[in-house]
Structure formats: structure tokens, C-alpha cells
Design a protein that fits this description.
Elements lengths: L10 E4 L16 E7 L3 H4 L2 H11 L3 E8 L5 H14 L3 E6 L1 H15 L25 E5 L11 E6 L4 E6 L10 E4 L9 H20 L5 H23 L4 H20 L4 H12 L5 H15 L5 H10 L9 H13 L17 H12 L12 H11 L2
Parallel strand pairs: 1-8, 2-3, 2-4, 4-5, 5-8
Antiparallel strand pairs: 6-7
Helix pairs in contact: 3-4, 5-6, 5-7, 5-9, 6-7, 6-10, 8-9, 8-12, 9-11, 9-13, 10-11, 12-13
Length: about 400
Amino acid sequence: MQNLSFLFPTQLYFGKGSLNRLAEVELPGKKALIVTSAGGSMRRTGYLDRLTGILDQVSVSYVMFEKILPNPHLEHVMEAVDVVRAEGCDFIIALGGGSTIDSSKATAIACTNPGNYWDYVEGGSGGGKPLVKPMLPLVAITTTAGTGTEADPWLVITNETTGEKIGNGYATGLSTFPTISIVDPDLMMTVPPRLTAYQGFDALFHSTEGYINRKGNDVSGMYALKAIELIAKYLPIAVKDGSNEEAREKMALANTLAGFVEWLSGCTSEHSIEHARSGVKPAITHGEGLIMVCKEYYTFYKDSCQEKYIQMAKAMGRENATDPQEFIDALMELAEACGVANPKMSDYGIREEDLPMIAHHAWYTMGGLFQVDPFVHTEADTLGILQRSYR
């Protein structure tokens, strides 16, 4: 019998038009720092104007911070902290994808706790300190279907000085869940096809990793299999036709379910391996980096997770699956259908002779995730997965 105990402290609003709910609910402050990505995409799409219009309507003032990169930097987190303190902001609104929401979580932590955000990161050169005070309230408005960070307490930040990309967060006690989360598929209609695919695979791997994770349980497994089913069915449609409202809504739901999986069971070392590469080569999109190693990673664990692989294959549409290899085959077929099969590390300047360093970096920065794999493999095994994945 499994023993389960959990509290989901986020008020989450899901569905078409959910952004408008911000005009109806009690926001957690009177002056917000609005955090968005660099490049102005939230302005071009009109999403920022919609948000500020609602804030004007409810008499909440705001200041802007528009510097977040796809692999968000510690430097920008601490810059945002300075703005919060200088402007007297009492809560944060994140408008964007996983990088924006993760940066906002880190900012919210560092605003209320002494020192630098990196002081509280566990792994690598992080200080590993416990939080002293609750983080600043956060409203998370996701515009992508990828990380599920609106529905979990985790965040990933890159220390650009050391090249360390490390996940962090707190599910209990002084937790790092958002206060309010908005999941509005209308805000996801403008994501380009390739990014739609990479983000969808991120959500997929959160689900598959959470399903084979040693911490997995019946509740997280239920969410994982449903997310896998939705992604396998609707991601190719969303990639082909981004204006398809049903596909966008189903992918938004899959993403949020994958966030629940992240919260209840978590990732495995597939994410450690990816972070080690995109930490030193930040041009690698996270989902793309996961695809780079997925075939060899899941092949490595195939014999130890046979029944779970068969269940995942069935969720991906192979209703009569009896062989765990069918999950791996379905995975690669999905990548082909979405036009993102076989990405190359070499395209980003990674050389074969760099792979031992990357394997070591994976263990140094996020070694904890190797402990929740189906079985703990060695650093030499990690190197083998990278070498067999190298192109």
C-alpha cells in the first residue's frame, strides 16, 4: 500500500479565456513586477497589453522586466530582485514560458531571503541553504505547453559564470509553488511549429521520466499516462496547425498534468544529462536537448521497466503493445511526425572529446536525479549514453 500526502497550494485556472479571471480574483499585492522574455514577443502578440489592461482595470500598478532568455541566467534573476526592491513591488507576475516562470520563482525567492539566489541551490557550486522566509507571491501565466512549471514547485536557472544549469525548489514547508496560475490555451496559439514540438517533448519527457522514476506512485502514474496519451495524439496536430484550438487546449492540459507528475514524482537523470549540455551550450533548446539522448537513454532502461514501457506504448496509441521496444519506436515515430528527429550535438559545437566533461558535469550539478532512476547507473554509463547519441 502506498502512503501519499500532498498539498497543492496554487489556485490554478485552466481553459480558454482564463486570463480574464485575473480581473475577478483577489491578486496577492498592489504593485507587480511583470517579468517577460527578451525580444518583445509578449508585446508583439498583444498578450502584454491584455495583461496590463486587466491590471489597470483592477487598480494594480506595475513595472516591467523584459530580459529573460530561453535558458534563464542568474544575472537576470538578481537584476530583477534589484528592481523589485527599488520599485517597492509586493508580488511578481510571470508572463511567458517556462524560462520566464522559473526566473520569476528564483526572483521571488531571492527577494525575501538574504544573499544571492545561488546560495539556495542544491548541487554543483550552489550553497544549499534552506529558505528563511516564504518567497514573494507569484502569479504564473504560461504561454507555452512545455515545462508545467505553473503546476509544480520546481525551477531551473543557469549560472552563466560556471555553466551550471541546475533545478531547484521546495514542495513542502516554505514551498515555491506559484500563488495563482493561469493556463489559457489562447495564449499558446502563436508559438512557432518547431518550438511547439520541442516544448511538447519537454512535457512528454516530464511524464515518461516521472512514470519510471522510483518515486512514482499511482497518482503520478495516472497523470503521466494521460499526459503521454494527449501529447502523442495532439502534438503533431499542434505542430502542423498552430491555430487548431482543440490541439492547443489538449497540449495545454497535457503540460499541466505533466507539471503534476513533476511535483508528485519528478524527473530522472535524462534531465541531468540535458542540463549539463545546455548549461555550457545555452543555444540548445531544452526539448531538443532531451530528444538528442532519448533513444539511447530509454533503451538503456528498457529491460528494467518492461511493463511500464508497454503501458506507455499503449498510451501512445499502440493499443496491443506487448514489447517494451514499442514505446521507444513510438517515441521516435512521434519525433519524426513533429519534424524534430535526430538533432545533432555537433551542430552546437559539441565535440566527441567534450562528452566525458559533460557526463561528469551531469553528475556534479544534478547528481540527485541519478538516485531516482529505475536503477543507479554510473558516470561511465552516462558517458556511454552520450557517445551512442552523438551525431
